Amino acid sequence: MISLQKSFQKRGPATLCGAGVIALLALQFFWLYQSYQLTRQQLISNIEAAFEQAYQKEQTYRIPINGIVPQGNLTIESCGKEEIRIIRHCPDPDTVTYDNIYGQSMEMILNRAFRELRESLIPLNLYCLSDLFAGELYERDITISFVIERYNPTTGTVLESSGMPDAAHPVTHITTTLTSPLSETENLRVNLQFFPSTIFHQMSTEILISFGLLLLTTACLGLSGQTIRRRAQSGATLLPTATEQPSEFPLGHYSFNYTKNELQSFGQTITLAKKENALLYELCINAGNVVGRDMLLEKYWEGTGFVYTRSLDTYIARLRKLLSNDPAVQIITIKGVGYKLTVQTP
Q1: How far apart are CA 86 and CA 113, in angstroms?
Q2: pLDDT per residue over 186-205, tens digit each?
């Protein structure tokens, strides 16, 4: 339990912040990718709806149904659900029969019949349809390039086109195609081209949220960097270099050599533990002055919690016991502040 607390105290802020940043960036990337795909699908659906609306308007503007079929000039005969016959009464009467081999509803068959009747009287005007489609896109705040084509689905031959594709930046364009059948020999095709910025325009809310998360991530990285730098500057080693202080300290009948981790007295040599050596060094270089508890805890335990405080008290008690053979050498506790090493001269 102590080792876990110590590990967290030493690495906690930087490790947790670093892991959090990585996780946040990964989640942010995944979220933006999913949002991009969903927005793209929604954009295509909106474009399809705009084209369907434009196509319906073009049919209505071209010629109304009541203009195609004046009263008395056309007869529709139904033979149950099997087929319907449309008979045009004109100088050259003709009959068109629609077999319901796919089990379609009567409404679908009639729509097909009237659509083909329109096409036979007045062909589809691609330029009018293109203008109507552009208007529908404008109403939906969608900016794209498109070309509408009539083509033969069997041979792929383009019969008529409303324009040429925009080839200025083919690499950066996103392309897709919408198709709609006109008859057995003709289909309608819409070639769409748009920049990724068109999709990002629809993702304004997601982008703002992502930008906010990026700022939060940057702030967390800055905090982590400051923590690491502060700890690096606080003195990472338990032992100083020989150029900073003398290597030996006379302590009454004792002699302390911090480079060897040794305390000599009365003909005996005692090898000190690492923290004992470090704490005695701090007391020696500040002999006669108070050494703060918090400074010792931060420097050698990197924390000020209860567990570390008890550990410091234990090491101070060990040093007092090691120095107990010479009453002139005392480690005095300054309550609430720290410790002071005093050496009385005879």
Answers
A1: 8
A2: 888 888 887 777 777 767 67
Q: How far apart are CA 256 and CA 251, in angstroms?
A: 7
Alpha-carbon span 137 to 198, nearest angstrom: 12
Domain range 248-343, CATH architecture: Orthogonal Bundle (1.10)
Beta bridge partners of 96: 86
Q: Are 251 and 326 in contact (CB under 8 A)?
A: yes
- What is d(CA 54, CA 60) in angstroms, rounded to the nearest whole number? 10
Task: Copy the structure tokens of residue 86.
Answer: 């449309």
- pTM of the predicted structure, to 2 decimals: 0.44
Enumerate the domain spans of the chain: 89-211, 248-343
The DSSP secondary structure of 146-164, one letter per residue, reads EEEEEE-TTT--EEEES--
Query: Tens digit of pLDDT for each residue in 157-174?
Result: 888 888 765 555 444 556
CB–CB of 143/197 below 8 Å?
no
Spatial distance between the Cα atoms of 240 and 192, rounded to a whole number of angstroms: 71
Report whether pLDDT(156) > 80.
yes
